[in-house]
Amino acid sequence: MEPVKIKEGIYWVGTVDWHVRNFHGYTTIKGTTYNSYLVIDEKVTLFDTVKHGFEDEMLERISKIINPEKIDYLVVNHIEPDHAGGFSYIVQKIKPEKIFITKNGKLGLSAYLHNTDFLFEEVKTGYEVKIGKRTIRFIETPMIHWPDSMVSYILEEKLLISQDAFGQHYATSVRFDDEVDPCVLIQEAAKYYANIVLPFSPQVQKLLKTIKDSGLEIETICPDHGVVWRSKINEIIELYDKWSSYKADNRVVIIYDTMWKSTEKMAYAIAEGVVKEGLEARVFKLSVSDITDLMTEVMLAKGVVLGSSTLNNNLLPTMASFLTYMKGLRPRKKLGFAFGSYGWSGEAVAQLNEYLKEIQAEVIHEGIKCRYAPNQEVLKSCEDLGRLLGQKIKEV
Predict the structure, then answer these.
(1) Which long-range contacts (CB under 8 A, 24 or more apart) does 189-192 make?
(2) Terminal CA-to-CA distance of the chain, rounded, Å?
(3) Residues near 35 by Cβ (< 8 Å), separated by ≥ 6?
(4) How many other C-beta atoms can be found within 10 angstroms of the C-beta atom of residue 186?
């Protein structure tokens, strides 16, 4: 694949990973990209490297523009191995004069590589470097999503190199937002936010405020994964503001698992009640669903309902696994309740409610549990509870 011109003198020189299907627990059914950007100026500057194993492909792409040894500066926006796995190899090949990095980045990368013999220059928010006709301004973004993280803004180009912010795990042969299916793009951006960025939403709000207060105009956003934003800048920034404010849609996601379909029948009855209140209900059985997709659904819905049969005085293993994942991602501002069937003890519903409380959800009801199989009376109660949740969501 050829390098791609982003603007005059600015190129995408990253790599496409068509085959990766798991990214530290995140299911990447569309693969991903490891994006790097090259700026040709008086001081030729490379932003980020690539995952280990893709270095030669990256250097070959750079070679089609310039001899890699003519690169003067390397900017490390993020030290996670999918971006900096190729760091040592690339540094050895290009021998940059300077490597711009945050203090935490320097500490972290040195610990990763057990080597401090690099020409690091520490930068902070507001630090600027003139590379010729262009100026790079660095903005620290700690915990979006690692302590070392920063973004780089090229003032004259109104271009933001945003590392993991605004990314998508989305392998394509094209490089821009207006060259792909917009519905797929926004879904992949939401999935990325829900499964990677969501726990750090307060920091995202801080970054958006910094951008606004600084009066930074942005015409192009170049993330470290996925396509470059040039046509939907306002749309993706508005979505990041929405997602990081924990605003969600008036719909309900019902996530459950079942042994003998009793809990499943209850899930469908709850969904029926939600629908009768004029809201959309989405029902997912854990044993046949991907938790990456489920977290996207949780982020986008105001209502979250959890259901599990009781097994050995506890939750079903699939539910326990999902709840551990969900708790770590810290969704907020949800309304919901729990339900489930049991044979002789029935602890699952109370345990589910505790998890809802741990993510600071408003638990609208103590929940409903049913011994063995639900009769019509129980199913009617489930439907009524679904309607109650729908009513409360509409009131918010």
Answers:
(1) 189/226, 189/236, 189/239, 190/239, 190/243, 190/296, 190/299, 190/300, 191/292, 191/293, 191/296, 192/167, 192/168, 192/225, 192/226
(2) 50
(3) 12, 14, 48, 222, 223, 224, 225, 226, 228
(4) 16
Rounded-to-integer distance, Cα 282 and Cα 332, Å: 19
Sign of CA dihedral 267, 273, 276, 279: negative
Rounded Cα distance between 357 and 383, Å, is 23
Q: What is the pLDDT of residues 268-287, one digit of tens each?
A: 999 999 999 999 999 999 99
- Among 17, 145, 177, 342, the active-site one is 145
Q: Which of 170, 192, 193, 240 is catalytic?
A: 192
Q: What pLDDT sits at residue 117?
A: 82
Cα-based angle 183, 330, 152 (whole degrees, multiple of 5): 65
Largest separation between any pair of C-alpha atoms in the chain = 77
Amino acid 141 reads T
How does pLDDT run across 144-174, given as a tens digit for each residue? 988 999 999 999 999 999 999 999 999 999 9
Backbone angles phi, psi at 327, to 5 degrees: -60, -40
82 noted as active-site residue: yes
Cα–Cα distance between 257 and 252 in angstroms, integer? 17
Q: Give me the catalytic one of 80, 157, 188, 297.
A: 80
Residue 169 falls in the annotated catalytic set: no
Q: Give the pLDDT mean for 359-365.
A: 97
Is pLDDT of 396 > 90?
Answer: no
114 is catalytic: no
C-alpha to C-alpha distance for 311 and 201, rounded to whole angstroms = 35
Q: In residues, how long is the chain? A: 396
Q: Is 69 an active-site residue?
A: no
Is residue 116 very low, low, confident or very high in pLDDT (cuts 50, 70, 90)? confident
Q: Name the residue with tokens 């810290």.
A: 330
Given a cut of 90, whether residue 24 has pLDDT beyond it is no
145 in active site: yes
- Distance (Å) of CA 35 to CA 138, 171, 321: 18, 11, 32
126: phi > 0 → left, psi -120 to 50 → alpha, else beta; which? left
Assess whether pLDDT exceeds 90 at residue 23: no
- 316 within 8 A of 259, measured Cβ to Cβ: yes
